[in-house]
Amino acid sequence: MTTETPVPTAKRVPSERTHHGDTVVDEYAWLTAKDDPETIAHLTAENAYTEARTAHLEGLRAELFEEIRRRTQETDLSVPGRKGGYWYYTRTVEGQQYGVQCRRSVRDGETEPPVSVDGAPLDGEEVLLDGNVLAEGHDFFSLGAFDVSPDGRWLAYSTDFSGDERFTLRVKDLATGELLPDEVPGTFYGTAWSADASVLFYVTVDETWRPNRVWRHTLGTASTEDVVVYQEDDERFWVGVELTRSERFVLIDVHSKITSEVLVIPAGNPTGAPASVAPRRQGVEYTIEHHGHRFLILHNDGAEDFALAWTSADAPGDWVPLIEHSPGTRLEAVDAFADHLVVSLRTNGLTGLRVLPVGGGDAYDIDFPEPLYSVGLHDNPEYRTGQIRLRYASLVTPDSVYDYDLVTRQMVLRRQKPVKPGPDGRAYDPADYEQHRDWALADDGTRVPISLVCRAGTPKDGSAPCVIYGYGSYEASMDPWFSIARLSLLDRGVIFAVAHIRGGGELGRSWYDQGKLLAKKNTFTDFVACARHLVKAGWTASDRLVARGASAGGLLMGAVANIAPDAFAGIVAQVPFVDALTSILDPSLPLTVTEWEEWGNPLADPEVYAYMKSYTPYENVRAVDYPAILAVTSLNDTRVLYHEPAKWIARLRAVAPQGDYLLKTEMGAGHGGPSGRYDSWREEAFVNAWILDRLGRA
C-alpha cells in the first residue's frame, strides 16, 4: 500500500486484567486516556490517514452531498400541530443548519392546520427558539428539552454544545421573549410542568451517567434551592419524568431492562409525594397512561407480548383486563384521548394502530396499503380531540403525515415530505423502485426476515451490488424507512437490504429474548445467514456486498467480521460497541450496570464472562483476510466511548496487517455524529462514497 501519509501505528503498552482466573493483556488500553496528548495525536493521525486514503473520493463525496441537498426542500415547514390556542411547528431555512421552533395563534373558526407556500413563515408566527442563533460560535449543538408550559406562557429548553448529552436547562418567558434567571446545568432528557406552570420537574444523572434523580424547581428561585423529589439508588434502574397528555399527573418512570415501576404526582399538587401505581416486581414491565378515572396499564405480567389493563387513578389496585395477551401481537404503547384509546402494536413484522372507542363499539385496526411500511402516532398533544395525527413511510414512500378522524374513520394526507428532482432532472417516482420481503434460514432453522429496496428491474443474477444493514439489540426494530440519501445508492444500481435479526423486536418479545444474554450470538449468525441468503438467492455476490451498522449494530459489524470475513467486500461500523467485554466489566463507565440485564454480568458470572469473551470483536481479532473496514466514531460520545473503535482498528492492523482499515473520529461530536443537517449530509456522503468505492460504483 503506497501513500504519502504513513499508516498510523499505535504504540503497545501491555496492561493486564484478570477475571475468573483468566488474564488478558490489552496493549492499547492507554487509548482510554482522552486527555492524554498522545491519544489525541493518534486520533488526529488516523484522521489524516483516512483523509489521504479517501482523497480520490473527494469529487464523489461532493457529488453525493449535492444530490442530497438538491433532492431536499431546504426551506421547509412541518405540519402545524394544535395545542390549546396555538399551532406549533418547525421551520428550516436554506443554508441554515438547524430548525426554527415556532407557533401561531389559532384563528376564529380555524380547524385545519395552516399551510405555507414553499416553507415560508406563517403569517403572524412567533419564533420560540432558533437553533441557528443558539448554535452560533459552537461546532456542535443539540436540544435536550423543548417543553411549553400548559398555559403556553413558559418554554423550558436545554442545550448541549459538546455532544456529551449533558444539558443546561433554561426557561424563556414567551410573553416577553426574555430568559428567566433560572438556569440548571448538568441536566438529562425529560421535563414536566405542574398544572399551574409554577413548578418544573427535571432529571439529573449520577457519576456513571445514569439518570437517577428527579428534581423540583420552582420558577423564580435559584437552582441551589431545588428539591430532589425522587432518587433511585438501585444501579440497575434509571428514571424519567413526563406530564400526562391529560395534564393531570406528573409521571416518574423507573426502569431497568426487565423491570419497571411508575410513580405519580398530581400536577395540581406539585409538592406532593410521589405515589407508586404498582410496586416493582422482578421481571414485570409496565407503563401507564392517564384516562379519566383510571390509569391504563400496558404490561407483561404473564403476557410475553404484553396486555392492556386498567386500574383506578384514585386508588390504584387490581388490574382489570382491557386487551388480553395474544402471542405474536406485540403491544408497544397505548395513547389515551378523551373518547378513544389508540394502541400501537406490531404483528408479522409490521407496525400497526388499533383504535378502541371508549363509549362503545368494537375495536378495529387501521388499514394501510403497502406490503412493507412503518406507521406510528405523531405529535398528538391534545387530550380532547376527535382526530389523531400519524406518520407513515415505507422504503419507497417518503415520510407522510396524516390526520385520521376517529369518528368517520377518514384519513387525510396533510403532507408528504417533498423529494425534489435528482441530478437527471426527473421528479421522484416511487414506481421507479421496488421493495421486497425475503426470508433467510438461520443456523438453527429460524426464518429471519429481510426487507429490500432497489431500482425497478434490478437483475437478480448476482451481479448487483448490495448494502446490508443490521442492528439487533434492545428490542429495537429496524422498520422500513425512507431515505433521500439512499436514493444516490439505488440510482447507481445498489440494492439496500435490512436484516431483521434476533435481538431486535420485529417479531415480538421472544425475538428479542432469543438475541440477548447467553443467546446473543444468534444476532450475529442471523446476520451472516441473511448475507449468505442474499448471495444464494441471486440478489448479490459476496464480493459485491457491504455490511453497515451503528452502536450495538457496530458490535454486530465487528462480530460478523470475525465470524465470516469472506462474506463481505466491506464493513462500515459507526460508533461501534466493539470492546464490549472490557466496557461491561467496568461498572464505573456510563451505562454498564444498567446494561447487565441486556448482556449479562461478566464480573459476577464466569459463564457470562466466557460467553462475551468468545464474541466481543476486540478480543477475537484473528490473522485472517478481513474485508475493508471503515470505523466512524466521535470523541465526546458518552454511550460508546471513542476508544473502542480506536483500539479495535489498532489491533486489526497489528494482527492482520494486510487489511485495509480506516478510522474517522469526529473531534467535536457525540453518539449521533455531527449535529447540523449539512454536516450530517457530508458525513453520509463520506460513508456512501466509501461504500460505492468498495462496490466498484465510484
N-to-C span: 20 Å
Q: Which overall shape is indicated by the principal axes computed on the Cα atoms?
A: globular
DSSP strand (E) fraction? Answer: 25-35%
- State the major sheet: 8 strands, mixed
Overall average pLDDT: 96
Provide the helix percentage: 10-25%
Q: What is the CATH topology descriptor of the largest domain?
A: Rossmann fold
Tally of individual domains: 3
Report the CATH C-level class of the largest domain. Answer: Alpha Beta
Which structural category do the helix and sheet elements fall into? alpha+beta
**CATH architecture tag of the largest domain:** 3-Layer(aba) Sandwich
Q: Give the helix tally.
A: 12
Radius of gyration: 25 Å
CATH superfamily of the largest domain: Alpha/Beta hydrolase fold, catalytic domain
Number of E-type strands: 38
| Contiguous runs where pLDDT drops below 50 for at least 5 residues | none
Strands of the largest sheet, in order across it? 31-32-34-33-35-36-37-38
Topology (SSEs and partners):
Layout: E1 15-19, E2 22-26, H1 37-53, H2 58-71, E3 76-77, E4 81-83, E5 86-92, E6 100-105, E7 126-130, H3 131-134, E8 142-148, E9 154-160, E10 167-173, E11 179-193, E12 199-205, E13 211-218, E14 227-231, E15 238-243, E16 249-255, E17 260-266, E18 275-276, E19 286-291, E20 294-299, E21 307-312, E22 320-323, E23 329-336, E24 340-347, E25 350-357, E26 364-365, E27 374-377, E28 387-393, E29 400-405, E30 411-416, E31 433-441, E32 447-455, E33 466-469, H4 484-490, E34 495-499, H5 509-513, H6 521-536, E35 545-550, H7 552-563, E36 570-574, H8 580-584, H9 592-599, H10 606-615, E37 628-634, H11 643-655, E38 661-666, H12 677-694
Parallel strand pairs: 33-34, 33-35, 35-36, 36-37, 37-38
Antiparallel strand pairs: 1-2, 3-5, 4-5, 5-6, 6-7, 8-9, 9-10, 10-11, 11-12, 12-13, 13-14, 15-16, 16-17, 17-18, 19-20, 20-21, 21-22, 23-24, 24-25, 25-26, 27-28, 28-29, 29-30, 31-32, 32-34
Helix pairs in contact: 2-12, 6-7
